[in-house]
Amino acid sequence: MKLPLLHFILCLAALLTACSPKTQSSSSTAPVQVITVSALPESLTPIPTPAPPVYNDYTINLDINPSERTVTGVEKIKYRNRADQTLATIYFNVYLNAFTEENAKQSILPADEEKVYPSGYDYGEMMIDSVAVDNEDARFALTGTVLRVDLPEPLEPDDDAEIKLQLRAVIPKINARTGANNFALWCGNFLPALAVYDSQGWHTSPYYPVGNPFYTRSANYTVSISAPFTFTVVGSGEPVVQEQSGRKSTVFTAKMERDFAFALSDCFQHETFATTAGVDIDLYTFTDFSGKSDLLALAADALEYFSGKISPYPYSHLTIVETGLPYAGGMAYPEIIFMDSACLQEANAFQALTYEIGRQWFYGVIGSNDVENAWMSEGLIRFFQERFARPPENLRAIMGQEYADLQVTLRSMNLRGLDQDLSAYRSRRDYESTQCARGKLMFYALFAKMGEDRFDGFITEYYRKYSFRTAEPADLIRIASETLEEDLTDFFHQWITASDLPSLDS
């Protein structure tokens, strides 16, 4: 399937410069905890388009025993030190270990416990048997969700290293981003992922139970998954299936993606739909429910809407797969969306599906730190959802009503602004009232201030500069200010930090 020309050029550029994202070394042997960054730019001096991004390359081979829910494999990462200092230690986030018996209580909300463990307590774990760097054994320590690798030899700036992890995992029988039931297994945020190092240090924050506790760089993946012959494996990227000796290997190639997710089952039912732009949308389910064709049509409409308003969808496939999640909603990864069984059979599928499709762009393509600045993705996705769902002439009245409702809700809350990281939230209600609802109203206020054409021009420029990269709040604010030709620092400051809601007409 051919990609749009713009994205063909982006992909070609990425392939020509494939290596790791810019990192810096740290003299500390312990992970640096996340510190909330300032949301405001130091100046509004126009900034050029960032340099072409570079990507890590992951090559992964997994062997899965579905009946035992076990995985063995090898993960290799081609890594280039893009720091201006010598690098001695590298960190990985190993999110599956949020669901060991020791850590699971801290990784879910108490209100979700019954939904997460419908069959009783069951735990998962990722184990690292060995680590090698350029074929030399390396010292490592896996503590909770953080893997520290001490390099045998310091890695100089612009030098390459191949890191090899020998791994074993147990997939828990739970409803979570990685989980299983009697019909399928699914793995999201499953593989050990290189942590991000930026001006704050290494980002190895815990797996918080609220929001999307992830901050990752785009990377290239080649993943081979071996499973019994009767199982269908679906995942991010382009699949090629090879069959031999009663087993089936499915090899996925995924370029410029922030994570690799997959699912497998021996009872998947498959439906497919092609958009007018030539994107194949596949739906894999293990239960019968009415409305599959309607769901696929909705996905196509939403995909084409976001493509038209932001930039064409940069991949040739989108897979929607039935899973179990801690809530009746969805979870998006590049090219694949997990949907909870209950959500697929309820009216709220519209809200959940269009949100996860929006997340393909905001966080998926345009990266941000969802631990510290969730509003950058949440607010934009929710506002574009409203634009998709509502007639333009009704938008102001609907936003006005939501503004009035949120004013009432915030009066009973201690956390009212957008300047909190995920560690502050103890309930989904508080998170959704601020990062989602308040974030959406902020972008509506910006839309009203700019007008539709300038707002869409701002989003186009934001995409141009930060697709497959990572944007900071200051970057977003600066681009909005340049587009409007007005300093918007105070506008964003009030929406991000003030206890009371600023006026929608500010």
Q: Spans of 5+ residues with little confidence (pLDDT < 50)?
A: 1-39
Number of helices: 12
Most strands sheet: 8 strands, mixed
Average pLDDT works out at 90
How far apart lie the N and C ends?
A: 46 Å
Side by side, the strands of the main sheet go 5-4-8-2-1-14-17-16
The CATH C-level name of the domain at 1-37 and 59-216 is Mainly Beta
Q: What class would the helix/strand composition place it in?
A: alpha+beta
Helical percent range?
25-40%
Report the β-strand fraction as a percent range. Answer: 25-35%
CATH architecture of the domain at 1-37 and 59-216: Sandwich
Work out the radius of gyration.
22 Å
Number of strands: 25
**What sort of overall outline do the alpha carbons produce when their principal axes are compared?**
globular
Instruction: Determine the CATH topology of the domain at 1-37 and 59-216.
Output: Immunoglobulin-like
